[in-house]
């Protein structure tokens, strides 16, 4: 009996929805994306507007707080809630494009390394091993020191740092797929190397790539926050979460809210994306599903 094409999709969504953590992560991430898209209309104030008479205003529920500034204000009198909402646009956008910039060359190099393990693949993997021997944050800092601070440079640095993970993952998946019968059948049918790479093998490697891209998204958000904290990423007064932490670190002893809320936002966003990655892994690979 033929299985309807929609059946695998139903099974995927059913398996994903069965993971409550992944479902929570998806809802939270959708909420963050919605806030990012509607930031100019949802945020109470401009992220760079200063209220000098309300500098370091405590949150609304604390003694002396005001509901005009629900999460309080920072050292320059800027509304923290507005900066967090607008900051979601930068953090999510940079993370998304960093993954996009990484995944295309990473997949291509991984395919080459898998198809030519004794030639170009050996050179690619040795370069990958060298990059993996360096701490990711230090490598990103070194790249930023050469290229200079800025949003575009930060995306490029994060993309370069994340490249080895995709190369190794794709290479391992490709070498596993090359041993299967459908690849042999494609070769006998006269398929050239490019067709084997992108038509026969790559579609069967997409499940781990999708999971890695999801987890890479969360890593990119952490990396851009780390670069911003060190003053190498997005520059003030732009409302990026890591930059907010950097400018507020001198006030941590007397104004806990200026560092707590940006840090908590980063924590929850990264956690949500990681939970989505776990859910995708379980739904895309039945062998990895948790036993009930």
Q: Indicate the overall shape.
A: elongated
Structural class by sheet pairing and helices? mainly alpha
What's the N-to-C terminus distance?
29 Å
Give the mean pLDDT: 84
Count of β-strands: 0
Rg on CA atoms, Å: 23 Å
Amount of helix? 55-70%
Number of helices: 12
Biggest sheet features: none
**Low-confidence residue ranges:** 1-5, 287-292
Please indicate the percent range of residues in DSSP E strands (runs of 2 or more): under 5%
Helix/strand order: HHHHHHHHHHHH
Q: Can you walk me through this structure?
A:
Helix content is 69%, strand content 0%. It is mainly alpha-helical and 292 residues long. The longest helix is centred in the middle third of the chain and has 36 residues, at 80-115. Residues 1-5 and 287-292 have low confidence and may be disordered.
Summarize it.
The protein is an all-alpha fold and 292 residues long.
List keywords for this structure.
elongated; disordered C terminus
What is this structure's SSE topology?
Layout: H1 6-18, H2 20-37, H3 39-42, H4 80-115, H5 120-133, H6 136-147, H7 151-177, H8 181-188, H9 193-201, H10 206-229, H11 241-248, H12 257-284
């Amino acid at each position: 009996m033929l299985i309807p094409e929609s059946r695998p999709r139903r099974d995927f969504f059913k398996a994903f929805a069965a993971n409550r953590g992944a479902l929570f992560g998806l809802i939270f991430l959708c909420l963050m994306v919605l806030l990012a898209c509607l930031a100019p209309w949802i945020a109470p104030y401009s992220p760079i507007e200063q209220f000098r008479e309300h500098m370091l205003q405590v949150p609304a529920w604390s003694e002396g707080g005001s509901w005009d500034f629900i999460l309080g204000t920072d050292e320059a009198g800027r509304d923290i809630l507005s900066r967090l909402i607008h900051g979601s646009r930068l953090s999510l956008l940079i993370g998304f494009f960093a993954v996009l910039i990484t995944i295309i060359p990473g997949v291509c190099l991984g395919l080459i390394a898998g198809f030519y393990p004794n030639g170009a693949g050996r050179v690619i993997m040795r370069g990958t091993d060298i990059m993996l021997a360096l701490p990711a944050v230090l490598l990103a800092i070194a790249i930023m020191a050469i290229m200079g601070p800025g949003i575009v440079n930060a995306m490029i640095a994060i993309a370069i740092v994340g490249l080895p993970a995709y190369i190794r993952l794709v290479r391992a998946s490709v070498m596993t797929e090359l041993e299967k019968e459908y690849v042999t059948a494609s070769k006998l049918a006269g398929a050239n190397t490019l067709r084997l790479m992108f038509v026969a093998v790559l579609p069967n490697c997409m499940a781990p790539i999708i999971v890695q891209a999801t987890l890479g998204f969360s890593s990119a958000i952490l990396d851009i926050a780390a670069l911003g904290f060190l003053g190498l990423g997005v520059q003030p007064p732009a409302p990026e979460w890591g930059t907010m932490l950097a400018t507020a670190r001198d006030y941590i002893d007397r104004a806990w809210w200026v560092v707590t809320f940006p840090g908590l936002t980063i924590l929850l966003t990264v956690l949500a994306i990681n939970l989505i990655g776990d859910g995708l892994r379980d739904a895309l690979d039945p062998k990895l599903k948790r036993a009930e």
